[in-house]
Amino acid sequence: xxxxxxxxxxxxxxxxxxxxxxxxxxxxxxxxxxxxxxxxxxxxxxxxxxxxxxxxxxxxxxxxxxxxxxxxxxxxxxxxxxxxxxxxxxxxxxxxxxxxxxxxxxxxxxxxxxxxxxxxxxxxxxxxxxxxxx
Length: 134
What we know:
Elements: H1 9-19, H2 26-51, E1 54-56, H3 69-75, E2 80-82, H4 86-109, H5 114-128
Antiparallel strand pairs: 1-2
Helix pairs in contact: 1-4, 2-4
């Protein structure tokens, strides 16, 4: 196992492969991935609307062409204030876990190694830096 007894990505991917019995079709896996993504969105929404542990202050982001991208990181906001309470944190974490499960199942269906996906994305982020998501 990895550090702190955490499973490696390879171990997790193998476990998902062993556990996925009912949704062997790639179409089933893709639909479950979409549902789990929606459940993540719903869990965050409920943290705002039902619990209120986090508050959204969404507005147009003020960006000036005079700023460079590093300065923009300081001026642009996430729109979120507060922290998830323990209950909401657990729910969002669990929904993210389910989403990761089905993303990993899709990787299995398509013979893609999860660690390669993460490594490629990490390398792309490292190479492109702030330009990666613009």
